[in-house]
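Example record

One chain of 401 residues, shown exactly as stored in the release files.
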Amino acid sequence: MKVPIKGEFKDALPVIETLQDAGFEAYFVGGSVRDVLLGKEVNDVDIATSAFPEEIKRLFKKTVDVGIEHGTVMVLMDGESYEVTTFRTESTYQDYRRPDSVTFVRSLKEDLKRRDLTINAFAMDNEGLIQDFFDGEKDLRDHVIRAVGKPEERFNEDALRMMRAVRFASQLGFHLEADTYYAIVVNAHLLENIAVERIQVEFVKMALGDYILQGMEAFFTSNLFKFCPGMKHAEVALRRFSLIPRPIKKERHVWALLLYFLGIRDSKEAASFLRYWKVSNQTINDSTRLLELIYYRHHRPLNQYQVYLYTPELVWEAEDLLEYIQLPSDKSHAIKLIQSLPIQSRKELNIDGKRLMEEKDARGGKWLGEAIAMAEKAVILKAVKNESDSIVNWLRKNKYI
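Predicted structure tokens for this chain:
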């Protein structure tokens, strides 16, 4: 099969052609080739070559050793960067994660044999001709996720490949080939050997897939979920999670919804669960605040102070998530509250500590922080106008100064 060379592939052609002009083989490989065959947008490309790392470095003016021990050199050209990796084979894997050793080879087929799935084992030359040694094109047409070679061997080499298989089922809407699925069932326990950070990345990608039901179904029927942090007894929650009515668009939505289906209400418990998953601090903060908003909206409508405290962005997202879990939302009311906020942040409050200390004729202290906080709340709730004198009079009347 042959496809047109355009977009990111065309931009990267000088790298391919430089390698070829020096007498080496060079191909576009992996997911970018799969995506072009599926008609999807290609955002970045990877290149594999018969040239060894030192040979690559001699051919290009600017390179960075990003993973030279594994054969990868980053080539900098025309303001862009491209990862160029030497064809390689890998030895046995003692820890189900990393090969004991890597051997550089000159054979494209030997290199592609070590890849995880047939739909990721394509290569494409500079004229758009596809190299497909493992019937990956047929699997794309049949919507099949199949391991390259013997599935059990691939999963024993790197147990994360099992998560990648179910992730691609979710992203592409494909089904797992029988032997590949059975090998996941038999080897699911090997996931315990994989760093949580790596599992988390694949789980989030799976949860963000357009076909989450297919991916999640394989995730829990194969028992992979039992070897993920805090999920050993979460099958019911995961089944509910997989039945959400439309694709999830943001990582923080993944975690907020999962926490909800797990029945976690306490923010500290939620944060602890997410830290166990090695989620970033920013995502933990956003996800737990979304969870708080969901539970708040269970029992009462929004008010302006809630919109201000949680930020208009999170409030709007929480109303959206209520629809995901089939609870009443009121987006029109949320919009009205957002649009009518007198201030968006404390920086816009027309009072400062210096003025309040002068009015009270006292030094700063706990009272000052409390006074500013009460003024902020009063302005938000429109108990007082956001005018300096009005705020001072309101604080004096209510004995805060």
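Notes: The first helix runs from residue 8 to 21.
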